[in-house]
Design goal:
The complex is a heterodimer. Chain A is an alpha/beta fold. Chain A contains eight helices and nine strands. Chain A has a six-stranded mixed β-sheet, with helices on both faces. Chain B has helices at residues 3-18, 21-42, 61-68, 82-90, 104-108, 136-157, 179-210, 212-217, 223-251, 261-283, 289-294, 296-306, 321-325, 328-342, 346-375, and strands at residues 49-55, 74-79, 96-100, 111-112, 119-120, 125-131, 163-169. Chain B has a five-stranded mixed β-sheet. The model of chain B has no long low-confidence stretch (mean pLDDT 85). Classes of the chains: A alpha/beta, B alpha/beta. The complex binds adenosine-5'-triphosphate and magnesium ion.
Chain lengths: 247, 376
């Protein structure tokens, strides 16, 4: 896929972010084209979540420039066009699953009947229909995650940002999630996803490998395999990180 | 029981305090602050109680009397017009109008008999005190200062003078108002303020730590909507609480309700809204629930001691008084007392409402700007 000729949905241009002496991002540059399913992969503390928070305008970069849907991250105009699932559950734990969905649905401006339909459809998708009246605090870890994903899918987004959406989710449902992501991508939605599961990275059009806040490799899964002469993505990932460390 | 394990738990606690210098500072500061404010606030008698004196006396005795009044206890202004002085009391500008009649001197001293040079006993005279009893601590100072002055006069002249006091009440219905009437407004405002601040503080710290605030912020909901949304919820809760508190005060303690209950309720709702935004503002400084709770003494003690619940604001030391006026609770309590005990209506209370509203607008703006700055 030739990304240069396509419209960019988001761009990181030499972005750095420091917290005291910790450098979370170090001159990170990459961009995602409209309609792409892009996977951001990297070890713990690599800077995946930090990049997403900067992208959403929740924090400010120390250096560099970020553009999202043609705006600076601090511009609110595009907020209704983004679906976001944070790494932590981030729901009102004292409210039921359904009440959480209703709240965020209203904030996204869905009208009553559309919201009702959307909620039952999403509850069915994350397999929480039966638990919709359960307060989030009483859900299992994986269920909380599923409820959080449902909230992220509430708006009709142009861009979907998912921070480790499949952590703690059982294999069958994980597969269901990925077919949904693929489906949404086919409808033209751009998706940025972070994950630790290498088999999942294979679903992405392109994968960016990030380590110590810097992009160390980027390309289609096949290209990465070729580049590193590895049998699978897991091995490729380890080899590329080692190669970077030697440099 | 193992000492080693017990000490391990103890050590863990010190470690977590050590990792959290702010908690440590608060732990040390809060009790000191409480002690200081308590001492300064309760250590002083009510002083500088405002009174207005009307001296119509043709002689000099009234002036002598006035000179004997302790000028620290009473803060004296003078007026030449009786009804104007009374109006000052009715308006709440003075606690009492003290009126000396034309023939005060003449009637207090022995007089010459109409025929012959014989001295007749004095006719007797009286000082009229037009008194506001809605704050009994202040009216008590007026009474005791006048009694003291009267005693000094007598010991000065070596004989008893036939001076009596006649008291008129500026708010006759509140004539026998017990302390409970005076405290009720303060306790209501205090309870609502502490409750609301604590609740919002915890709710907002929860919003920040759980990540829901971030999630809200990347929906089309903006900071103003978030803050005002909270205000409406707590305003409504406070309205219900206010009604309940007023009902308890009325049915259990039989407090006087001379003015409009609605107006008192409105003041309570505004109090809660101010308290709520203060909670939001403090939440920005707290990273965890446990830190949030440590800020509470910094709300409770100033409100408790400086907003006139027990200690009249007038009698606080001069340097401490300005702090009273920057507490919304001071205005709320004063306003609610005016409504309940003096029966004042909107024409008198609008400055209180305006000030409470002003606090709400200014504090909300700060909260909203704080949230926005946090985002970008
Ligand atoms: N608020 C913060 N204050 C200080 N350091 C932070 C903060 N947020 C992130 N960091 C640091 O930034 C670095 C990158 O963290 P980030 O959360 O982006 O990693 P990640 O790639 O998402 O990791 P994971 O796969 O574990 O989720 C880490 O070293 C982390 O400690
Ligand atoms: Mg992360």
């Amino acid at each position: 896929m030739n990304t240069d000729s396509q419209k960019k949905t988001l761009t990181f241009d030499n972005v750095s972010k420091t917290y005291g002496d910790i450098t979370a991002l170090n001159k990170l540059s990459f961009s995602i084209a409209e309609g792409e399913l892009y996977g951001l992969i990297g070890p713990n503390g690599a800077g995946k979540t930090t990049s997403i928070r900067l992208l959403l305008g929740l924090e400010r970069p120390s250096e560099g420039r970020i553009e999202i849907l043609g705006h600076s991250p601090s511009n609110r105009a595009h907020y209704s066009e983004i679906g976001y699932m944070p790494q932590e559950t981030s729901l009102y734990i004292e409210l039921t699953v359904e009440e959480n969905l209703e709240l965020f649905g209203r904030l996204y401006g869905l009208d009553r009947s559309a919201l009702k339909n959307k909620i039952s459809e999403l509850l069915a998708f994350v397999e929480l229909t039966e638990r919709r009246k359960t307060v989030v605090a009483n859900l299992s870890g994986g269920m909380k995650h599923r409820a959080s994903l449902a909230v992220a899918l509430l708006p009709e987004p142009k861009l979907l940002i998912l921070d480790e959406p499949t952590v703690g989710v059982d294999p069958e449902l994980r597969q269901g999630f990925w077919s949904r992501f693929a489906e949404m991508q086919k409808k033209g939605i751009t998706i940025l996803i972070t994950t630790h599961y290498m088999d999942e990275a294979a679903h992405c059009h392109r994968v960016g490998l990030i380590s110590s806040g810097h992009l160390i490799a980027q390309g289609t899964p096949n290209a990465l395999l070729k580049e590193s002469q590895a049998k699978n993505l897991e091995e490729a990932f380890l080899k590329l990180i080692k190669r970077e460390a030697i440099k | 029981m193992s000492l080693k394990r017990t000490l391990a738990i103890t050590k863990k606690q010190f470690l977590s305090i050590g990792h959290d210098p702010r908690s440590l500072a608060l732990m040390i500061l809060a009790p000191i602050m409480a002690m200081l404010i308590f001492g300064f606030a309760f250590g002083t008698q009510p002083e500088h109680v405002k009174v207005v004196i009307v001296n119509h006396d043709h002689g000099t005795l009234a002036s002598q009397f006035i000179n004997k009044i302790n000028h620290t206890d009473l803060d004296i202004t003078t007026s030449t017009n009786k009804s104007e002085a009374k109006n000052q009391v009715k308006n709440g500008q003075s606690v009492a109008a003290i009126i000396f009649p034309n023939d005060f001197t003449a009637d207090a001293l022995p007089r010459l008999a109409p025929r012959g040079g014989q001295l007749l006993p004095p006719k007797g005279t009286k000082i009229t005190v037009f008194l506001d009893t809605t704050d009994q601590q202040l009216s008590a100072v007026v009474n005791s200062s006048l009694a003291a002055a009267s005693q000094k006069m007598e010991s000065g002249s070596g004989s008893s003078l036939p001076i009596t006091f006649s008291t008129d009440y500026a708010f006759p219905k509140a004539k026998d108002a017990g302390y409970i009437n005076y405290f009720a407004a303060g306790i209501m405002v205090f309870a609502i303020t502490v409750f609301t601040t604590l609740l919002t503080l915890l709710a907002f710290v929860g919003e920040r730590t759980s990540g829901t605030l971030d999630r809200l912020r990347i929906t089309p909901a903006n900071e103003t909507e978030i803050v005002v949304g909270y205000e409406l919820a707590f305003g409504a809760i406070a309205a219900v609480q206010g009604i309940l508190l007023l009902a308890v005060a009325y049915f259990v303690y039989h407090i006087l309700i001379i003015g409009s209950v609605f107006l008192a309720g409105l003041l309570i709702v505004l109090t809660a809204i101010d308290a709520q935004i203060i909670g939001v503002l403090i939440s920005a400084a707290a990273k965890r629930e446990s830190q949030a709770v440590q800020f509470l003494p910094f709300i409770i003690f100033p409100v408790f001691l400086l907003s006139g619940i027990f200690i009249p604001v007038q009698s606080l030391p001069n340097w401490l008084r300005p702090f009273s006026y920057v507490l919304p609770t001071t205005w709320a309590i004063d306003g609610i007392r005016d409504v309940l005990l003096r029966g004042w209506g909107l024409s008198h209370i609008w400055p209180h409402l305006l000030i409470l509203l002003g606090f709400a607008v200014i504090l909300s703006t700060l909260a909203i700007v704080g949230l926005k700055r946090n985002r970008q």
